[in-house]
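Table S7 (text form). Paired inputs.
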Amino acid sequence: MITLTAQENTVFTVASDQLENEDYDKIIPFLKEKIDEFGTINWYFEMTNFKGWTLSALWRDAKFDLKNKDHLAKIAMVGEEKWEEAMTSLMKPFTDTQIQFFDLGDREAAKKWITS
């Protein structure tokens, strides 16, 4: 399950449970719309009670991120699990995008960082 909102060039996504292919039918057009509008966007991605991605959803996420890496200025990954933090570290070598992990309790600091 996801919720999507935006504040100018910053997209806020809150994900819970497991993301599925259908979720990316909403996420990708929303992100593309903001990229078309602003050229470069920031992406706040909060994971609460998150169980990961289905294989097809993970593939769509990876393809989008790689294809649009020049349009992503910052990504704030916000979660509560060590694997979520490790996943954030694994993303860094594949992009010049500033990527930072924040603990769920530090979501306000993450929001401040992503919009600065």
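Next pair, protein 2 of 2.
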Amino acid sequence: MPRSVNAVAARAKRKKLLEKTKGQFGSRKNVWTVAKNSYEKGQQYAYRDRRTKKRNFRSLWIQRINAGVREYGLSYSVFMGKIHEHNIELSRKVLADLALNNPEAFKAIVDSVK
């Protein structure tokens, strides 16, 4: 009896993955084994970098707060210490946004902790 293979499903599976690697450089887009490796590696990077993105944004917020606070003669660490002393419950994300887009509101917060 001849060996039975489900060529339809196998081709559909390969086609689906090749569709996901569309736009990549060279043989990464059209050679099955290379595309498969490239896709899997890309998924690993995506998983890792979803966590890295959180670190990068926190770092950016700290830099923005520090730059905003320096205008008023404070450093970031002193400012954050005073914020915690005065029980002001604002996240770094919100503080950075205020420092960048709403300087008068940020100045009011700085004045309240000084």
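Residues 86 and 107 are 16 Å apart (CA to CA).
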